[in-house]
C-alpha cells in the first residue's frame, strides 16, 4: 500500500508537471492571483506548489476554460490538484504534528473529539447535580454558572484558546518560512503589501470573477459562494466581538451573563449566529452540487466535516438563546460548550486553519505583485536606445 508521504510526493510532482504545461499555454493568463504567480516563475519547487495551492480560492474558472482537461492526455485539473495540496498543508505544518493524522486527517477522529467533549461536559453536570440538574430551569444573573463555575469555564476556554492560537501561530511560522525560503533581503515584505493582502482577503477578491462570480458549483458563473463566505467570515467576527464584549461586561463592569435580548452582547451574537447559519447552510448546499470531476474526495470530506461542526456550534448557540429560561437550558449549554471546546481543540488541524495559510499566501503574492510592478515601471522609465551611424548601416547605442 502506498504511504501518505509517497502520495503527497506524487501529488507535488504531478503539480509541477501541470504548472509547467499551464505556464507554456497561458490561456488562463490574468484569471486570478495564482496565474499571475505562475507567470513569474519558470521552475516550480515543492514550496512553490504549497504556496500556489493555498493562494487558490477554488473558483474553478481555469478548469472550465482549459482545453487540456481529462480526457486529454495532459489531464490538467488545477482545482483538484490544489485542493489535495491544501489538505497536505494542514497536516504538514500542524503543531503538535502527532495529532494531525488523528484529528485533521481522519473525519472519524475529528467527530470523535466532538462526541467526547459533549459527553464529558454533560457528565460533569450529572456528577455534580444528578439527573435532575440537567433539566432544572435556571434564570437571573449568573444562571450560566450554576453548574459550570465561572472560573473553571474561563480557565478551560483560555487554555483551549491558547492551544488554538499556538497551533495556528507555529503552523503559520513554518509555512511562512517555507514559502519565503527562496527570497532575498531585497524582497522583504512592506506594510503596503500587508495592507493590500488584507483588502484582498476581506473582500474575497478572487471569488469575484471580475464581477460575474466564480464557476462554482457548476460551469455557470455565480456570486452565491462569495456571498456565503462573507456571511460566514463576518458572522464569525460578530460572534467573536460579542464574546469579547461579554467578557468586558462581566470582568470590568461586573455584570454577569445572561444578558437581555436587546443587550449589545446578545444583538451582536444573534446577528453573527444567523449569518453563520445562513452562510454555512449555503456552502453545504453548493458543495453538494459541485462538479465531482473537479473535487478532491478527501478535501470534500474533511471540509464538510468542519462546516458541519461550525454549524453545530452556531445552531446550539442560537437554540440556547431561545430556550435559556427553560428546563432545557443546562443540557443545551452543555452541548454548546462541548462543541465549542472541540472546535477550539481541533482548530490547528481542521480546515479552520485554511484562513491562516491563505492570508499568508496573499501577503506573499502582494509582495511579488509589487516587485513585478516596480520592475515594469523601471523598465518603461529606461531611456530609449539611440541609433548611431556605422559603415554599412545603423546600429543602436545603449
UniProtKB/TrEMBL annotation:
Native organism taxonomy: Bacteria, Bacillati, Bacillota, Bacilli, Bacillales
Alphabetized GO MF terms: iron-sulfur cluster binding; metal ion binding
Transmembrane regions listed in the UniProt entry: 108-131, 151-176, 231-253, 265-286, 306-323, 329-349
SUPFAM superfamilies per UniProt: 4Fe-4S ferredoxins (SSF54862), Respiratory nitrate reductase 1 gamma chain (SSF103501)
Source organism, top-level taxon: Bacteria
This protein's UniProt keywords: Iron, Iron-sulfur, Membrane, Metal-binding, Transmembrane, Transmembrane helix
Name listed for the protein in its UniProt record: Citrate utilization protein CitB
InterPro entries: 4Fe4S_Fe_S_CS, Citrate_utilization_prot_B, NarG-like_sf
Keyword Manganese: no
